[in-house]
Design a protein that fits this description.
The chain is 33% helix and 21% strand. By secondary structure, the protein is of the alpha/beta class. It has a domain of 162 residues: Metallo-dependent phosphatases (Purple Acid Phosphatase, chain A, domain 2). It binds fe (ii) ion (FE2). Fe (ii) ion binds next to loops.
Length: 239
């Protein structure tokens, strides 16, 4: 069984479209389907119709519940300015779908138990979980699964923690580790591969430039898509 693991799509349909060309039997989606990118509808619709299992991210929750984000700078600021457009571009049933996604899910695949959660088992929507064995040893003490899949950090990693495996596939739609290519993971026969793929980023950027965002906001967003990071936004998480 070939398992495709995706996270943090962030409404970047050109990136998701390319990632989905990866052959797979099962697709696990770890949340944050929306915000930042401005093509939310096809992303939500694909996950809704095709992902085998999906969980809710902090941005899905925020968009569904119309949470007001007060950020003067950084990714929080960009969340605030893109959220209104996100909500305009989704139908009520699509917003309801985001709000009803479970915050965590345990599934059995290939005789292994998987915990799927957007951020961390302690705080499924918001905790920033680094690639740190000590951190994960504490978090996994009472978790009875073989594999934990998380997203949220936008930085891919695979960690072996005792007998358990922690997989963060990185971000499909808004990588922030200095590599602008879409990031995802494939699991097959107990082997994990972190993969990167080029996608037509100019299509994503065209969507931003055609929007009603201010020129300064468009520039901030486009820099992250083009460079896979942002000097301006460094130090601001708002994952
Ligand atoms: Fe995210």
């Amino acid at each position: 069984m070939r398992i495709l693991v995706v996270a943090d799509i962030h409404a970047n349909w050109p990136a998701l479209e390319v990632v989905l060309q990866e052959p797979h039997d099962v697709c696990l989606c770890l949340g944050d389907l929306v915000d930042y990118g401005l093509d939310p509808a096809p992303c939500v619709e694909w996950v809704r119709q095709h992902a085998t299992h999906a969980v809710r991210g902090n941005h899905d929750h925020g968009a569904a519940q119309n949470v007001f984000v007060q950020g003067k700078a950084g990714f929080k600021y960009l969340t605030g300015v893109t959220r209104a457009i996100t909500r305009e571009r989704l139908r009520p049933d699509q917003l309801r779908y985001l709000g009803r996604l479970p915050v965590s899910k345990t599934v059995t695949l290939n005789d292994s138990r998987f915990l799927l959660v957007h951020a961390s088992p302690r705080d499924p929507l918001d905790e920033y979980a680094p690639a740190d064995v000590e951190f994960w040893t504490r978090r996994l003490q009472h978790i009875d699964v073989e594999v934990v899949c998380i997203g949220h950090t936008h930085h891919p990693y695979v960690l072996t923690v005792g007998e358990k495996l922690v997989i963060n596939p990185g971000s499909v739609g808004q990588p922030r580790d200095g590599d602008p290519r879409a990031s995802y993971a494939v699991l097959e026969d107990y082997k994990v591969e972190l993969k990167r793929v080029e996608y037509p980023v100019e299509k994503t950027i065209a969507t931003i430039l055609q929007s009603e965002l201010s020129a300064a906001d468009q520039e901030m967003l486009c820099e992250v898509f083009r460079r896979g990071q942002s000097a301006l936004l460094n130090g601001h998480r708002g994952n």
